[in-house]
Amino acid sequence: MAQKRHIVYRTMHLKDRISWTSGVAGVIRMLTWETENALGISKTRLQQRVLDHVFESCANEVLDQPKWEAITSALESKIENEIDSASVENLYDEPIKGRLISPIEAQRRLRFFSEEFLNKEFDVFTSLLPSSVLTYYLKGHFTIRPESQWTITGSSNDFEASTGMKFMYMDTLAYAHNTSTLVALELKMDSPLGKDQILKYCFMAAYLESKGFIAPNSNFHILIIGNKSLTPETLSTMRQTAAVQLNEKQYPKKKITREQIELFVPRVASLINTMEVKSTNWQEFGDYFHKLNHTLPTSPYAETLHKLIDGFLVSLQTKYSRKLKRPIYVR
Q1: What are the backbone dihedrals phi and psi of residue 274, each rounded to the nearest 5 degrees, phi first?
Q2: What span, in angstroms and rounded, lies between the C-alpha atoms of 256 and 264?
Q3: CB distance 115 to 188 below 8 Å
Q4: How many other CB atoms are there within 10 angstroms of residue 304's CB atom?
Q5: What tens digit of pLDDT does each residue of 129-171 get?
């Protein structure tokens, strides 16, 4: 099967505006086509190096030029056939696992099925939202002071190296220093929430306080955004489970000692009792910002905000859930 170039945003005329998220997707194109940026060497050189290592291990066999060329040609043919066999016909076809794929297929999988890529688009979206807009959205879930001024932090090598926190992986943090408020935004598509996710977030908040990255005794909230909203009963059970896990000393263990983690236990116990945990789904999230976008002023100064919201919602409509068997947001 020949590789098919699936079109996400079909350009009918250059006057039509394209979502800003297509620029973010362009990074995927750069990395998949120019693999030297990620691997250090080109795909062709990687293939040649593998052959070199194989041939070097065949010390007792004489490999003349014709045989060398025959082996190289056969390998290239097999790789090409395998890549072709992983190509799919339709935009949302299930990825064929266990095979080499083309840059085109890699982009399709990341843009439509990857929770991690959605996280990065979400980081850009929330970091560019005016603080007042993000505040009013969060006030629909938590008690948030209206004067809150937000900074957004996504998961990155910079964040991990700066904080030294390696015992957990977080999605997006919204922090308002002027009101001492930290909101952890946990983003999900089809993957389940970790059984110790709530406890780990509490340890994270306690850790950040102890290291001076956020204000002491910050107000802490967790908002889970997924395919479906979790019921209040489920959220209550999750909080209770975190308390039981803490009591049973089921502490995070990754790259942190028992002695270090135990320093945070008193604050974690307090956070479990005082934090708010809420849940929503991508359809509700998208509907909220779609409605907001139609109530914003039409002045030139609001144009960027219109583009920001509309662009993210356009991309959100392309994110496909295997469990829902449809995009996570439908407009």
Answers
A1: -110, -20
A2: 12
A3: yes
A4: 12
A5: 999 999 999 999 999 999 999 999 998 888 888 999 989 888 9
Concatenating the DSSP letter of every residue in 156-169 gives: -HHHHHHH---S--
- Which residues are within 8 A (CB) of 93 and not within 5 positions of it... i.e. 6 or more apart? none
CA distance 200 to 242: 9
CA torsion through residues 143, 128, 31, 110, sign: positive
User: How many CA atoms lie within 13 Å of 78's alpha carbon, on the beta-carbon side?
Assistant: 7
d(CA 233, CA 252): 25
For residues 14-24, b (16+ Cβ closer than 10 Å) or e, as one string? eeeeebbbeeb
pLDDT digits (tens, 9 = 90+) for 27-80: 887 887 787 877 788 877 887 787 777 777 776 666 677 877 888 888 888 888
Residue ranges of E strands in 19-67: none
Q: Tell me the whole-structure pTM to 2 decimals.
A: 0.88
In sign, the C-alpha dihedral spanning 275, 281, 284, 286 is: positive
Question: Are 183 and 223 contacting, i.e. CB atoms less than 8 angstroms apart?
Answer: yes
Yes or no: say if 184 and 198 are a contact pair by the CB < 8 Å rule. Answer: no
| Residue 51 near residue 71 (C-beta atoms within 8 A) | yes
